[in-house]
Amino acid sequence: DSSDDIEDVSLFDADDDASRRSKKSKIRHPVASFFHLFFRVSAIVVYLLCELLTSSFIACMVTIILLLSCDFWAVKNVTGRLMVGLRWWNQVDDDGRSHWVFEARKVSAQGSKTSSEAESRIFWLGLITCPMIWVIFAFSALFSFKVKWLAVVVMGVVLQGANLYGYIRCKVGSRKNLTSMATNYLGKQFLRQ
């Protein structure tokens, strides 16, 4: 049985650095914002243009999977921390039990956020939109009988979907909270009708 922990912790020493920076800057981490979108968009563009650029399926597949892997690592370990103050990982105890840990940055003493609205929008837009595009690619590959591309597309769905799921769990809370929120939302929609 795995246990979920949600902790309120300070990531790095970002609270101190962010409070010293100018409040005028809308994007406080432009390099992180760039790479958050770069690897995701690059993998999609390479997938779309691959057959036009080269006839080697292996070269295309390796390039796309490398871009997806770089994206997974960058989003999970860097951009999530810097842009929205969230992170997640799996931890195995001495007993061999697996625990998923989801963390959120503490709110500073002044009550101000250390991440900007623009960064938050960029982060969540990229995190939600790209997996949906890979799901569309999966259906397209399946229905057009491009079975060899299906493996690549499934990797895109899995890697980007895992990050999406992890960050939704960080933002919302435990699985019970996520289930109850979905149930409450559907119940409200049903009552409105």
TrEMBL record:
The keyword Membrane applies. GO terms for cellular component: Golgi membrane. GO terms for biological process: protein secretion; vesicle-mediated transport. It is a multi-pass membrane protein. It comes from the Eukaryota. Pfam families: DUF846. Its main location: membrane. The chain crosses the membrane at residues 30-49, 55-75, 122-143, 149-168. InterPro entries: TVP23-like. It is found in: Membrane. Keywords: Membrane, Transmembrane, Transmembrane helix. Belongs to the TVP23 family. PANTHER family: GOLGI APPARATUS MEMBRANE PROTEIN TVP23, GOLGI APPARATUS MEMBRANE PROTEIN TVP23 HOMOLOG B. This is Golgi apparatus membrane protein TVP23 homolog. It comes from Pygoscelis adeliae.
